[in-house]
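This follows on from our talk about sequence and fold. Please put the record directly below this note.
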Amino acid sequence: MSRTWLSIRVELVSGHGADFWPRPGRIFAAARTHCFTELATAIDAAFGRWDLSHLHQFTLADGTEISPLEWWDDEAPEGTVDGAATLSRLKAGEKFAYVFDLGDYWAHLCTVAEQRIDPLKALGERPSSPAPYWGWGDLPDQYARRWDGDDGESPQPKRPAGELSDLPPILPGWGERPGR
C-alpha cells in the first residue's frame, strides 16, 4: 500500500492559565478524507479530556478558522468553515493551531509531517477516524484537578500509612491479605 495518510504531530502548548514545557504531545494518523471534527475528537480523547461540552476551533496559518458550526447557535465568527471540512486541505509541513475550550483555552500546535504514512504500518489497521500512534509527556487534568474532590483550595489528602495498604488485595503488593 502506498503511503497515503497524513501524520500530524500535536503538542499541548498551554491551557488553564499554564504554559507547558516540555510540551506533551501525540502523533496521529489521519486520512485526507477525515474531517476536522473527527481530528478534534481524536485529539481530545488522546489528551484525556472527559468534559467534551466545550467549543473547539482550528486556526490555519492563513487565518482560516474551522469549527462545528452547529455548536455556535448561529453566532460563529464570520467566515468560519464548518468542521465537516476534510483534512485534504492540509499540506505537508503545514502548521496550524487547535484550541479546545475557548474559556480555559487549551492551545495546541499541530504540524503535518513532510512524509505521508501507511496506517497499517503505523497502527496495524486502517482506523475509521484519526488515531494516535505515538505520544509522550504528562497530561494535565482538564480542570487542573489533582485528585477526586479537588476544589482548588483544600490540602492534598495524606497518603495512607503502609504503601498501597488502602487497596483491596487483588494484585501482589496491594492491601493487607487476611491471615498474614
Summary: Residues 29 and 125 are 11 Å apart (CA to CA). The chain has a mean pLDDT of 91. Residues 6-136 form a domain with the Structural Genomics Hypothetical 15.5 Kd Protein In mrcA-pckA Intergenic Region; Chain A fold (CATH 3.10.290.30).
